[in-house]
Amino acid sequence: MAPLRKWWWLLLLAGLSAGASSVAYGLTKPPLYESRSTLMVGTIVQNPNPQTSEVYASQALAATYANMAMRDPAKQAAMRSLEMDWLPTYSVLNPPNSQVLEIRAIDVDAQRAQQVVNAIIHYLIGISPEGNTLRHRNEFLQDQLQKLEEGIRTTELAIEHAQNDLAAALSARDIRAKEDEIRALEGKMTALQDSYAALLSNTSQGSLNTIQVLEPATLPTQPVDSGLLLTVVIAVLVGVLFAVGGAYFLEFADDRLQTADRVKDQTSLSVLGAFPLSIHAGNSHGALVMLEDSYGTAAESIRVLRTNLLFASVDHELGSLLVSSPVPGEGKSFVSSNLAVAFAQTGQRVVLLDADLRKPSLHRIFDLVNNVGITSALISDMVSLGTLVQQTVIPELHVITSGPLPPNPSELLSSTKMERLLRQLEEQYDLVVVDSPPVTVVSDTAVLASRADGVLIVLSADRSRRDLARNALAALDQVNARVLGAVLNRTNATRHGFYYSLRKEYGNQYYGAHYTSRPKKKSASPGAVPSVSESVTASGVVSSVSGNGSAGRPIAERTKLQ
Asked: What is the 3-state secondary structure (H, E, C) of 514-537?
């Protein structure tokens, strides 16, 4: 159902388009008129005692006539009689177990439809025994039958008179003469009756193979129902069905990882957090939403990610976390920087490394200088850790920028010096967050991932592709990296997670607590940046910062430490 909810507008558009097209087509069609006539084969209904064989014979004859009426000879004969080179649509129906034939013709011209029905009737009668070829013979037989009927009636009257005379006769001679006359008349009567029966058997009276017109062809005055409503309904249903198929095809062809379910199905990664597209509106570099709006739903989604990461690493201490993505532009720097702030707000000492030595961005996000950084430590043994770490307005968060961009970033990041730097940072901080390059673009990330305690993959719902994500996971799997899960960035807020609507539903009543720094678990190394001892409120105001004179200033005013 998800594709249907996503492409509901396509279903609506297809249904409306199909319905509107069918209406337009139906209104442009001319009205149609239907003429019909009913015929009967045989005279079974006139027989008071019909035989079963006669009934079956009449039904078989009716089916035969219906079949013959739809063949080419019938059509050609009708066209010749009407002097036409085509015929409108007509049909000859024979209901099951019936001697009745129903002839229908539909045309835009009512009179032409009637003429077509009459032409088919004339053809069927013409090929029946009552056709034109037998007409003269039947007329002769009818004349002979009429004469025989008159002779039979005359003979009957003569017999009646002779019997009356016989009753009045007195002499034996008269009686014998009348008896002889009566016998002669009776013989004549028998001969006439035999002749009549013989002639009657050769006529169509009582015949099974006859055609009678029960209902003559009518001249229609009203057009038939065009079925416009049914046509529109069917068109709408067909359009919607095609749109449903198109929606599922588009969803299948679209290999973007737009939802948590897709990420799970296509990559087997658990989605630990999701950030709506509205977070990035108007922010070219990915703003620190944890500082700018600590009460907002965007900051709450970061905290949800932080909590899920802790659950995902419950069996393995998370000393270092590498944040990467399959390709550039998916929001890994946004996630790593805000996630580092979220962990620091719980009181943990966090250091954030910009290990993207090709396109670094953390110095812009935190408004820091980038004249020294990771490259400075990797190319020189004289640089101390204290000169690399830069303080932020978050008391427990430090940042190490990339430093000057080198010509050989892969060699630097895969060097033993980089490994020693990570180990040193893990010893001095509770959590090391590494903002690494994209996995599928360079090989730097695979080397760093093998040295981190956990890897977090950032996917963008509007651009992450299935194959690229799988390739990234395959590259990480080759170095035995421990992938904790994925973050789905730039999602549709109506599809992912309930916590985007928390503020609307509950207001700020659950977000008024202060984030107070807990006692540090590890001491900073010599030369490290001075610590900040005071707490940071949830509203984003530093109460006091030692050594930089920024007490009471808003967090949005970034502190630059060189």
From this structure: CECCCCCCCCCCCCCCCCCCCCEC
Span 324-334, pLDDT tens digits: 988 888 888 99
Whether 372 and 388 have beta carbons less than 8 Å apart is answered as yes
Quote the DSSP letter at residue 149: H
Closest CA to 218 of 126, 90, 115, 100: 115
Long-range contacts of 182-188 (CB under 8 A, 24+ apart): 185/155, 185/158, 185/159, 186/159, 188/155
Q: Give the tens place of pLDDT for each residue, 521-535.
A: 444 443 343 333 333
More confident residue, 509 or 448: 448
CATH pick for 134-203 out of 1.10.8, 1.20.58, 3.40.50, 3.30.1340: 1.20.58
Question: CA 310 to CA 313: how far, in whole Å?
Answer: 5
Residue intervals of the chain classified under CATH 3.40.50.300 are 260-506
Buried b (16+ CB within 10 A) or exposed e, 51-89: eeebbebbbebbbebbeebeeeebbebbeebeeeeebbe
CB 210 within 8 A of CB 129: yes
Q: What is the mean pLDDT of the segment spanning 442-470? A: 84
- Residue found by looking up tokens 């003979």 in the block: 155
Q: What is the pLDDT of residue 255?
A: 66
pLDDT recorded at residue 323: 93
The fold of the 260-506 domain, in CATH, is Rossmann fold (3.40.50)
Residues of the chain with CATH 1.20.58: 134-203
> Which CATH number does the domain 30-130+204-225 belong to among 3.30.70.1130, 3.60.10.10, 3.50.30.30, 2.20.25.90?
3.30.70.1130
Backbone dihedral angles phi then psi of residue 212, each to the nearest 5 degrees: -115, 140
In this structure, are residues 98 and 124 in contact, taking their beta carbons and an 8 Å threshold? Answer: no
Q: What is the DSSP letter of 173?
A: H
pLDDT exceeds cutoff 60 at 126: yes
Q: What is the pLDDT of residues 127-160, one digit of tens each?
A: 876 665 455 556 666 777 788 888 888 888 888 8
